[in-house]
Amino acid sequence: MQFMPSSNHNDYLKIGDVARLVGTSPTSIRMWESLGLARPRRSASKYRLYSRDDVRLLKRASFLRKVRGMNAPAIVQTLKREGLVQPARDGAASAVGGRLRQLRLKKGSSLAIVADAVGVSVGFLSAIERSQMTASVSTLRRLARYYKTNILDFYDTNEPNKHLVRPQGRKVLEAGPGVRMELLAWGNTVMEPHLFRIAPGAGSGESYTHVGEEFLFVLKGELQIHLRGEKYSLRSGDSFYFESAVPHQWSNPGRSETCILWVNTPPTF
Predict the structure, then answer these.
(1) Are residues 117 and 58 part of one domain?
(2) Contact in structure between 257 and 220 (CB atoms under 8 Å)
């Protein structure tokens, strides 16, 4: 979500107004938002602010659900075909979706069982597996915990370890709208180094934990990170260290992309 200065607020609507115009509840609007069908900005006081384009897209989604009887994945697919929703930028989502489906089938679990265990809807999990949607970092972390693995396993890391990795050779994982994780080294490593690219307003989703320690260095932009309810505001040039077992949540509160060198050790993220 992007931050909007107060002078521009008149062109945007709050979630209650959008729900009334679309003919649904604020809870449903937030669900559609999690599927990438709306990308609200944020006011200085952190209220969601929706554009008229958001409203039109949500009205179309509501029509497809109520009149056509489509489920969430079918609606997303239809809107993609109509050119109203943009697909993932590369094949990363496809690789992750296929890997998640493979893990689920190997475990012998149904979509309903996994969805209930990680706290998402069956439709959303199905959309992730079919590469129609991408999951946030917190959702990927919960899925990794359910399958007793880590997010690193969602990358295609079958290639042997390389001492030198060119930018075009990095492994890429799209972790929800506006979050792109680029793996900088893999193989028999004791560290898990990433380049995180975080769009304005994007973030981890809910807080999450795992084993290990983390170090990050802000290459450009801003980052807001919450640890045990305490908020830290980082900007370009700042570094930060914490233990991964502490619940953490982060987002980009700025107006431009944030780039972070983010290192986990051991590779348990």
Answers:
(1) no
(2) yes
